[in-house]
Write a structure and sequence with these properties.
The protein has 370 residues and is of the alpha/beta class. The chain contains twelve helices and 14 strands. The strands form three sheets. A ten-stranded mixed sheet has the order 2-1-3-12-11-4-5-10-8-9, sandwiched between helices. Strand 6 and strand 7 form a beta hairpin. The structure holds 3-isopropylmalic acid and magnesium ion.
Length: 370
Amino acid sequence: MATHNLFMLPGDGIGPEVIGQVRRVLDWFKENGIATFNVDEGLVGGCAYDAHGAAISDADMDKAMAADAVLFGAVGGPKWDGVPYEVRPEAGLLRLRKDMGLFANLRPAICYPALADASSLKREIVEGLDILIVRELTGGVYFGEPKQITDIGNGQKRAIDTQVYDTYEIERIVRVACDLARTRNKKVASAEKRNVMKSGVLWNEVATRIGADEYSDLEFEHVLADNCAMQLVRNPKQYDVLVTDNLFGDVLSDIAAMLTGSLGMLPSASLGAPDEKTGVRKALYEPVHGSAPDIAGQGLANPIAMIASFGMCLRYSFNMGDAADMVDQAIANVLAKGLRTTDIMQEGMTQVGTNEMGDAVIEELGALAS
Ligand code: IPM
Ligand code: MG
């Protein structure tokens, strides 16, 4: 039985609660002789700031770099609204992404049939939706320099963020998207703003070349990012794999999340380049939802996105596709039985808390394994 080294960073708000449910899923895998996990835990976000004045300590960064995979909960909350920008909770997540080189962020948006009515959009628009957003995660305006606010006199300040992309950054993320499209419906849409931004012009140029030279077997489409946002709520099923930059990916993936019923449903995987010797990619898995401070500590949080993120970890880091399929199926079955956390609650369904949702997923895993 393989043993995998997992580093867990539960973070703030509902992070520890949803990570707690993943720990129970890990135990289930161990008890059933499928895999074992060495688990270490660290601090990230506001709790790390409280403990040592940084959004993540160097010691925890080292552990993240050394682990087979990192499981990340959520960061932030009103408690840390006033902390200096450099050490705000989100800085911990951004450092992990940057220092680990996690340039490829995979955000699958799947609308489970049982949840089609939980979306704010009509059932026929979202039912059966299965798209994959591939977001560039270590470049663009998130990290570009200069990034500053300067005093320019006369009571005026000037704020600058820099949107910057080099050819190789666009090439590698487009290739990730295209490789994934080959395992799906062979369709890629690339979103940028070439009509306004130079980075959009280069993005479009590079994506077009990679599509034509290396992936002529795929259907490749280019869409302006604002139009893409509109298309996602008008007719999201026209898309299969959607590749875009860091900022547009942030926004478009929140839209995609709501198509699935709730932000509480969307998992994600952030992957680095394959190691030259071992072929292994550094990886971090996190739900797309945030720390939800309004419901933190009340046992109300939906653990599905976190559990599904662990499913992605099984698939992408541990090469355990069958186990990952089981996790996904267990989630689908629980939803089909009518269990709902408050974020996806609907009339006639059974409302459950975080722990009961975890119980139900584990029970379904048991049923699927027998
Ligand atoms: C996300 C989040 C993060 C981002 C925040 C927490 C920094 O919104 O992962 O989508 O903007 O990337
Ligand atoms: Mg976001």
